[in-house]
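Quick one, probably user error.
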């Protein structure tokens, strides 16, 4: 079997188009969703991500503010900016680009963001809401993974899903979302002893490991849906996922490429979360 490719770029572009249409309508009734992105320091990858987020916001018609702060910004200065944005009526979403420089405490910073404006979904209140099945802002990459699975028409109910990776940013929230879709979920990590056996039973695989080409075709069940979250740069400069695409596509029914799979969905879901946050703030 050769897998069908799940085209994240195309799906994300449709999501963005829908958001733009909704924003056009909201603007007529006087609401412009606003996103503030805070970048501390000069990490090159973070600069690229922040630039893409800014561009995406402008494209869909959001109000966009980007704060590029120097590396030596103190915790107090950063918290003061977050407090100001928490009460700023033009701003409905606040995102602090991670990782932060080492002298800043990520947990304290994330906890300072108003949960209603926490469009990354990392605040413990939003993480807890996801855990207990209540409404909240859901982390962007996991939300994008579920969107991609749904686009294939695959029904998750009662199916076995294996998530490889248990980070708070990807692995754990994506496992919770799969559970909320009534999948039977297994979470694997670096101490898992029988990874291949687990994977061979999986109707859905979500790989979020951070190791290039780690999951190979011989570990994939025939016809399964494979979502590759990994972004790894090889020494030759090539970008690859956590799944060995060439061998896995011969077994899977559906597979995401890297690049062009989960990556574009992350920003699309950030826009979606900002729109939702704006609507929630207006309604309550
Ligand atoms: P983390 O490093 O936080 O987590 C990696 C996870 O993989 C850990 O839970 C770790 O287990 C597990 N792991 C490591 N080695 C093994 C192994 N041999 N067998 C099984 N599990 C293992 O990474 P993130 O979750 O933040 O990111 C994962 C990947 O996704 C990265 O490549 C990252 O770049 C990418 N990413 C992509 C995004 C996108 O927009 N497409 C967004 C976010 C991340 P343990 O907990 O036991 O250490």
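Nope, works fine. Designed sequence:
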């Amino acid at each position: 079997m050769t897998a069908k490719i799940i085209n994240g770029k195309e799906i994300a572009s449709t999501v963005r188009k829908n958001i733009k249409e909704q924003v056009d309508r909201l603007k007529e009734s006087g609401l412009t969703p606003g996103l503030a992105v805070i970048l501390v320091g000069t990490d090159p990858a973070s600069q690229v991500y922040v630039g893409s987020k800014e561009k995406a916001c402008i494209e869909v018609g959001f109000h966009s503010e980007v704060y590029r702060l120097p590396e030596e910004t103190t915790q107090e200065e950063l918290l003061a900016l977050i407090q100001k944005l928490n009460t700023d009526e033009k701003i409905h979403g606040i995102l602090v680009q991670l990782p932060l420089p080492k002298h800043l405490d990520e947990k304290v910073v994330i906890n300072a963001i108003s949960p209603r404006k926490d469009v990354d979904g990392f605040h413990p209140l939003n993480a807890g809401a996801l855990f207990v099945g209540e409404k909240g802002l859901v982390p962007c990459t996991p939300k994008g993974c579920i969107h991609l699975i749904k686009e294939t028409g695959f029904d998750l109910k009662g199916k076995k899903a294996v998530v490889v990776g248990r980070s708070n940013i990807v692995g754990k929230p994506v496992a919770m979302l799969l559970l909320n879709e009534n999948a039977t979920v297994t979470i694997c990590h670096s101490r898992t002893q029988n990874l291949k056996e687990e994977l061979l039973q999986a109707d859905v695989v979500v790989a979020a490991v951070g190791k290039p080409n780690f999951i190979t075709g011989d570990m994939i069940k025939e016809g399964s849906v494979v979502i590759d979250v990994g972004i790894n740069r090889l020494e030759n400069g090539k970008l690859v996922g956590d799944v060995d695409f060439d061998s896995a596509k011969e077994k899977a029914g559906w597979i995401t490429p890297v690049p062009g799979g989960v990556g574009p969905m992350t920003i699309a879901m950030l826009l979606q979360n900002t729109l939702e946050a704006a609507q929630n703030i207006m309604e309550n």
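The domain at 140-259 is CATH 3.40.50.720 (Rossmann fold).
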